[in-house]
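Hi F.,

I've been meaning to write this up properly since the lab meeting, where we talked about keeping a consistent format for the predictions we share between groups. The idea is simple: the sequence comes first, exactly as it goes in, then the structure tokens exactly as they come out, then a line or two of notes. No screenshots and no reformatting. I'm using this chain as the first example so we have something concrete to point to.
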Amino acid sequence: MKRAGSYLLGFVIFVFVLQAMYENGNEYLEKKNDDKQPMTATVYGKTVVQDLFDGTNYYALLKPMIINQSVFKQSSEEHASITKDVFDDLAIHDSIDGYNVNGKFSTKVDLDDESFSFYLVFCLVAIYPIGYILFWLDKIDAVSRFFERVLNSKSLHLPFIILIWGAVAFTLLYGVFNFGTMVENSYGTYTAENKIEARAVITDKYKIINPKGSNSYYLTLYYQNQSKDVFYLTKRVTSHTFYQYNHSIGISYTEENPYEVSMQKVEPLDVFQILTTDSMIIYYLMFIIIGLLIYTLFLLRRKKKTGSYYKSN
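Output, unedited:
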């Protein structure tokens, strides 16, 4: 009875994941097949959006008088993603190249980021339905014998293992590497030597409400370095920080990278809220998947020895 309940739960999750993959895949393909006409846009300013961790995105502002606004309050026609190199060289009234996609200006960075995010999430999500199908195929005697012949074949064993586990390992190892980089960069930002402390003016605030997850909170900051250079940054913060500060906030940064900003004051509640964000939950799930895959390898080894996934002897 307990095993039947597990099978039913697995089937429900399988159907839900397939439906989500189908709907999101269709939506993405429709956008990708839209006509793209080359065009240029005039730049009226530039700004940066920094995540809670190490994520930093650079934007060109395509409309006047929006430099002090949160990027998230702007329409998609008012800003465009650019690389850091373009950002550093960009001046007001310069032109940037891009594409007209259904009347909206998009840079190559915009289109590449959208494609990368879709395929990465799609591959990660696809691990479960592929594993689920292989699990039930293995229940069929003819297929199970075929798998056994492949696994026992000297010529097919290695390619089969590389094909199945290599694709899974590549996706998950990328996530592990990204997580490690995030932790390293975040630690480096908060512990950097010769940090400069400043008082940033809060010019705007914005909250993104997510009915299916945790909300996101952003402060738009204006500050100057010691050389009186002006910087504009939309910084993601915790809800605790968002509601605690209204006019100005203490920040720290290095002279080498003034857009890598950290808050001068971080309280235990801020740490708890950071650890329970959607991004962190995704990483937790990723490590759970890695644990389940390791357990799967253990079960496969057990079956090879005993003929059963469940018998130890």
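Notes:
The chain is about 50% helix and 25% strand.
Helices lie at 2-32, 84-89, 108-137, 141-152, 157-191, 239-244, 268-275, 278-306.

If this format works for you, I'll send the rest the same way.

G.
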